[in-house]
Write a structure and sequence with these properties.
mainly alpha, two-stranded antiparallel ribbon, 4 helices, 60% helix
Amino acid sequence: MNELVQTELKKIFNGRFSTSESTRANYARGEDTYEPVLSQAVVFPETNEEVSKSLMEDFQLLNPQELIMQEERILMSQYYLKQ
């Protein structure tokens, strides 16, 4: 994740953005049987608007390969936001 993306996400989420290894490890596991994959960061959205803002920033700043890798994370964000 480049520094520009991190800066923009920090603006959107304030203190609800983390790149710490322990936080990323906590959220790397799912209910599946695959080995966990550490993300580059974890955000904690509170509204659909925050999810939308972060996605718009990501889409503008990511290259196509990074964008494809974000698809699963986007779906998970929407899932957790609904709960």
